[in-house]
Design a protein that fits this description.
By secondary structure, the chain is α/β, with parallel strands linked by helices. It has one domain: Ribonuclease Z/Hydroxyacylglutathione hydrolase-like (Metallo-beta-lactamase, Chain A), CATH 3.60.15. 23% of the residues lie in helices and 22% in strands. The protein is built from 10 helices and 17 strands. The strands form 2 sheets. The protein has a 9-stranded mixed beta sheet with strand order 6-5-4-3-2-1-15-16-17.
Length: 398
């Protein structure tokens, strides 16, 4: 796809944005006003933008809640974004406060389930501050109770996490290992969450059947042993016609054909099938969101959880935008975009629907349509910046 093609598409996107963000009395979320509360029967998916890592809060049709990750990277600017709303609190504190504002008001706010996609700081280091503010019913990660696969992690962040898990279990807290293929572990009544992949194991699409992509670890040289990213969990959420895909930092990079089994993202995406909304794995970096992933998912909306200057890469963003991979319209939303990234890739980043802020997907009761709402992350007012849609929930767009 040429730069001219992207420019022409950008003009069309601009027209779409004007049409979908103009305020009217019929809109549920009004530009310039605070985000309206969750409504029973609806499904809300909040991609929380602290500028320091990933965190997603999902509120199901009956009010049950799931949080995926709570990142708190210590990478300093300018390689990372400035902390949002500011650096007066730790990222995990901001995440916990955000969740408390948006969880259903009835009773004490709590997280029914917390899913750890993998053990990296920009996904787990805010968990402890979240747990200090909110009760967590069930915690699920890729490795419990034995964190030695594919090899022991000796990094301080991994030891801190494992100590947290031991303390939680000792105090009676529930922790489970992510069960690939299951559709009943991450409970969200009114919706289905299918566990697609973790640790190189991928759901086949038949019953609870799975297959293992990774060879036996003892047969690999040290440099070929899969890292945490390659072991990430992947899920597909369905609420009637609506579909959503998220895969942590899973990658599709097979080292230029040398290690094809390292591509777990592609079979996970194929198992998921077409969805309405997809989170670009590994923040949209070069080694993820491969061409076959894009072809399989075909989302109307891509979401990039960005916080680093490398999020996203040019090639991954181009694939997300490419009409060659699927012809249907789509928008790309980022929770954050580095000024340096914009400067280097302006001809592509100018085509994005949003370059910063909380990205909230709101699925209507009944699951037949959805909107994407961008809210300001510079304070805690959750002021609506733009509203996109409504779009019909169709899963496959062809």
């Amino acid at each position: 796809m040429s730069a001219t093609d992207f420019t022409r598409r950008g003009l069309l996107l601009g027209a779409t944005a004007l049409a979908t963000t103009a305020a009217s009395p019929r809109e549920e979320d009004i530009v310039g006003q605070p985000l309206r509360p969750w409504r029973r029967g609806g499904l809300d998916i909040h991609h929380i933008a602290t500028g320091k890592g990933d965190s997603t809060l999902i509120i199901g049709p009956d009010g049950a809640s799931l949080m995926i990750d709570a990142g708190a990277s210590k990478t300093p600017p300018p390689a990372s974004l400035d902390a949002r709303p500011n650096d007066e609190r730790r990222p995990g504190e901001w995440i916990g406060r955000y969740a408390r504002r948006h969880l259903p008001a009835a009773g004490a706010p709590k997280l029914d389930t917390f899913l750890v996609s993998h053990l990296h700081p920009d996904h787990i280091d805010g968990l402890y501050d979240v747990a200090a503010q909110l009760e967590i019913g069930l915690l699920v990660d890729r490795a419990y109770p034995d964190y030695a696969y594919p090899q022991p992690l000796d990094a301080p962040f991994a030891k801190t996490y494992q100590a947290f898990i031991r303390k939680r279990v000792q105090s009676g807290g529930k922790v489970e290992r992510f069960r690939v293929g299951a559709a009943d572990q991450l409970a969200l009544p009114g919706a289905e969450i299918r566990n697609l992949a973790a640790n190189g194991q991928v759901w086949t699409g038949r019953g609870n059947e799975t297959r293992q992509m990774f060879p036996a670890i003892e047969t690999l040289v040290k440099d070929d042993i899969p890292d945490e990213n390659a072991c990430s969990t992947a899920i597909r959420l369905r609420h009637r016609a609506f579909g959503y895909f998220a895969a942590g930092d899973l990658t599709s990079h097979g080292f230029d054909g040398a290690l094809p089994w390292r591509d777990v993202e592609t079979p996970a995406a194929r198992a998921a099938g077409a969805v309405d909304v997809a989170v670009a794995a590994h923040h949209g970096m070069f080694d993820a969101t491969g061409a076959d992933v894009v072809r399989a998912l075909k989302p109307r909306a891509w979401i990039i959880q960005g916080w680093h200057v490398a999020h996203p890469s040019t090639d991954a963003l181009e694939r997300m935008l490419s009409r060659r991979l699927y012809p249907a319209p789509r928008e790309v939303f980022a929770t954050g975009l580095s000024p340096a990234n914009v400067l280097a890739h302006a001809w592509l980043t100018d085509l994005m629907a949003a370059q910063g802020g909380h990205v909230v997907v709101r699925v209507a009761p009944g699951g037949d349509s959805y909107r994407v709402v961008i809210t300001d992350n510079r304070d805690e007012t959750d002021r609506v910046v733009s509203v996109w849609g409504p779009w019909p929930a169709a899963g496959s767009q062809g």
